Amino acid sequence: MTARTTFAYFESRARTYRHTWRASVISSFLNPVMFLAAMGLGLGSLVDSGTRGAAIDGVSYLAYLAPGLMAATAMQSAAGDSSWPVMIGIKWYRTYHAALATPVGVADIVIGHVAFVTLRMAFVTVVFGFIATLFGAMTLGPALIAAAAATLTGLAFAAPVFAFTSFLERDTGLVNLFRFGIVPMFLFSGTFFPITQLPGWLQPVAYITPLWNGVELTRAAALGSSPQWSAWVHLGYLAAVIAVGLVVGIRKLGDRLIT
Q1: CA 24: distance to chain centroid?
Q2: Which residues contact 140 (CB under 8 A, 6 or more apart)?
Q3: What is the pTM of this model?
Q4: Residues 6+ apart with CB under 8 A from 102
Q5: Contact between residue 182 and residue 83 where contact means Cβ atoms under 8 Å apart
Q6: How far apart are CA 167 and CA 196, in angstroms?
Q7: Are 122 and 21 in contact (CB under 8 A)?
Q8: 51-76 in b/e burial notation, b at 16+ Cβ within 10 A?
Q9: Nearest-CA neighbor of 79 among 164, 203, 8, 10?
Q10: What is the DSSP string of 115-150?
Q11: Nearest 5 degrees, angle CA 195-CA 196-CA 199?
Q12: pLDDT tens, residue order, the chain (259 aa)
């Protein structure tokens, strides 16, 4: 693996994206508008009316919700870009086999793919941040810092989901991943309400999810508050998840494509 070959694969992903960017850009703008309007303004107005405008932690429900949705959007984007596209490369179109016929190696494929997904997430979260400022949920400076934290959160899904996909022979596993993993995390990892509202036995499960750690960091950056744990603990946890995902992904993809 070299920086040159990794960038070569990253560039190939970017060139492919030139033909599909329009649909993703539209969704990048529409999703935050619809979520913030429906949940932040619609549901939020009902929540705030019963709490005199300070729904949770002394802020409006819209201000509380927006950073959580930003992190959750990064998670969904990263998981989507690191699941079926990886299956395409391994099994259906075998584009990874073609790449390995060049000087590009397995590590170049994994790191180049994750790097491109990170760039996509950065765009998505920055757009979300700008829209959140228009809704009055954030101010611009904290929104950009929150976008960085949300991008890191997405990266903590891009690498493990890539590794998980490397083990699969059929996409049924991906359907189950989203049905029993991504969707429950979206609902129960602090995006919409503090996890202290969950049953006591379920709270430790939420604590170990990458999304909860990412939501805590993103919300702290957006609101200028302190996360539940030290920021370094959340950062270290996400970094460890990313590192394990990359190592396992490189090893398994190599076993599958080369041996």
Answers
A1: 15
A2: 129, 130, 133
A3: 0.91
A4: 8
A5: no
A6: 35
A7: no
A8: eeeebbeebbbbbbbbbbbbbbbbbb
A9: 164
A10: HHHHHHHHHHHHHHHHHHHHTTSS-HHHHHHHHHHH
A11: 90
A12: 678 898 888 888 888 877 777 767 776 677 777 877 777 666 666 665 655 555 677 788 888 989 999 999 999 999 999 999 999 999 888 889 888 988 999 999 999 999 999 999 999 999 999 988 988 889 999 999 999 999 999 999 999 999 999 999 888 999 999 999 999 999 999 888 889 888 888 899 999 999 999 999 999 999 988 888 899 999 999 999 999 999 999 999 999 888 6
- Whats the size of the chain, residue-wise? 259
Rounded alpha-carbon distances, angstroms, from residue 63 to 15, 101, 206: 37, 50, 22
CA–CA distance, 253 with 172 (Å, rounded to integer): 19
Would you give the DSSP letter of residue 167? T
Q: What tokens does 69 get?
A: 């949705």
